Amino acid sequence: MIETEELRFRHGDERVLDGVNFTAKAGEVTVIFGRNGAGKSTLLRHFNGLLEPDSGTVFVGGDPVAYDDDSLTDLRRRVGLVFQNPDDQLVAPTVEQDVAFGPRNAGVDEPERIDRVLSEFDLDSQTERLCNTLSGGEKKRVSLAGVLAMEPEYVLLDEPTAGLDGTGCRAIGQFVESLTDAGITPIIATHDVGFGLTVADTVTVLDGGVIDYRGDTLPRSLADRYGLRQYVFESWTAPDGDLS
Ligand SMILES: Nc1ncnc2c1ncn2[C@@H]1O[C@H](COP(=O)(O)OP(=O)(O)OP(=O)(O)O)[C@@H](O)[C@H]1O
User: Fold this and answer.
1) Does ligand 1 come within 6 angstroms of the Cβ of 41?
2) Quick check: helix, strand or coil at residue 62?
3) With contact defined as beta carbons under 8 Å apart, do 191 and 115 qualify?
4) Does 10 sit in the ligand 1 pocket, CB within 6 Å?
5) What's 134's DSSP letter?
6) Of all atoms in ligand 1, which is nearest to the CA of residue 189?
7) SS3 7
8) Using a 6 Å cutoff on CB, does residue 11 contact ligand 1?
9) Cys-Cys with 80: which of 9, 70, 147, 182 at CB 3.0–4.6 Å?
10) Whose C-alpha lies nearest to ligand 1, atom 3?
11) DSSP code of 177?
């Protein structure tokens, strides 16, 4: 379980999190919705210690997060964060080096683990590719593989469907399912109501610096009130039939 108690955090003068009480149960898919700038990424970054609260506490597996170097190294092995933009995540020149980077840094020498993860993400034939030559969707697969190579207990996904086509979005849905099947707990920040409600066991909404809503789904009236993207172009409907 990942929880926060009265979590408060400012970026400069801006109070972004203002007493967040959040819970993500182990084994469940928890989705965090919220409008642009609501603080979803800021909240996720507290779960693996990338940010330290101004006040309040983050608990992982029941224990309060500690911020000394050893504790943070251990925390980041247990809690993997997949950034919205893969370019913020990829650190090594080639695909294989990137996927192996985290485990090597953590002193894990298990080439078979890297081979297995590369194969799971269908990257076996791309191992020598330079990351900066990959498409956005391919970069996303490499960044997911790099996080999974750490064998985490929790995976935090920040806007995982951003920039992906329909096939890519469906693949992310399957990926989320595969995480729970493997006993890994996903926590997802997204604007994408269709995706979020499809994968969520628990839905939360971050608004006004607090968790303003929690439930097993999100009524449309609330999605609308929270300004979530699904309903912006509601008058548009796809034409039926063959237009060729
Ligand atoms: N490093 C930073 N320095 C200063 N302000 C920041 C920083 N990161 C985020 N902010 C500000 O904090 C607020 C919350 O940002 P955050 O990225 O957490 O929101 P979000 O809900 O993830 O937004 P989006 O949906 O647009 O990605 C925003 O007003 C943003 O401008």
Assistant:
1) yes
2) coil
3) no
4) no
5) S
6) 22
7) strand
8) yes
9) 147
10) 11
11) H
- For residue 22, the Cα-to-chain-centroid distance in whole angstroms is 15
3-class DSSP assignment, residue 25: coil
Ligand 1 centroid – CA 40 distance (Å)? 8
| Burial track 199-236 (b if 16+ CB lie within 10 A, e otherwise) | bbebbbbbbebbbbbeeeebeeebbeebebebeeeeee
The domain ranges of the chain are 2-87+153-231
Question: Which residue owns the Cα nearest ligand 1 atom 6?
Answer: 11
Ligand 1 lined by 40 (C-beta under 6 Å): yes
pLDDT, tens only, 62-74: 999 999 999 999 9
Q: Which of 35, 1, 7 is nearest to 19 (CA)?
A: 7
What would the CATH number be for the domain defined by 2-87+153-231? Answer: 3.40.50.300
The response to whether residue 13 sits with its C-beta less than 6 Å from ligand 1 reads no
The answer to whether the complex's ipTM is over 0.90 is yes
Taking the whole predicted model, whether its pTM rises above 0.95 is answered as no
